[in-house]
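Folded chain entry —
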Amino acid sequence: MNTPTALVTGGSRGIGRAIIARLIDDGFQVVNFSRGAPEALLPGETFRSVDLGDPAATVAAAQELAAERRVLHLVNNAGMIQVARIGDVTQEQMARIMALNVTAPVLLMQALLPGMRAAGYGRVVNIGSRAALGKDGRTVYGASKAALAGMTRTWALELAGSGITVNTVAPGPIATELFNQSNPPGAPQTLALEAAIPAGRVGRPEEVAHAVSMFMDRRAGFMTGQM
């Protein structure tokens, strides 16, 4: 069997970086669509600088990739957050966040879908967030992640008959570089956060990557539309 290719967005740091490392360990070739390059490419990784907040650039990059190789695995991980309470939310914030968090996954799915349908097989994982259930200061971000969850279920219903599964992995607090900058280990606010988590600690990026790996597996053909 040819080595499968996965497209992962926002894979240059944090959760996306862990997902790429895990998929390479699982035997994938991985294409990383991000604005900024990772510190070093992993063996089996191809990086392409793409501004996924720009619809035209997103469509062009995705169509070019689809024309070059068969891509039957997609992880929509790229996203952005701007914390603002409802009275301070701006139209600019809404447009920017929704373009990256909602529109880009739709455009990437559309570009890769013909190849998946032709193969009778596909695996799609969207990276959501616990904030979809509501969180202070997350009006736009939470709305974008709730939209992603709704799209997941819709795509799953539409595409199950074509052998394509679509699922969402929605993490809570994860110890990425950015998280640790705002919540230093051992700091009072970090300890208070950990005390409210049943496991007594925040999650690790590789644990999110493990959940993604499960849904991306060829054997996971009956699980779809899940979050």
Observations:
- The CA atoms of residues 75 and 125 lie 5 Å apart.
- Strands lie at 5-9, 29-34, 45-49, 73-76, 122-127, 164-169.
- The longest strand covers residues 29-34.
- The mean pLDDT is 94.
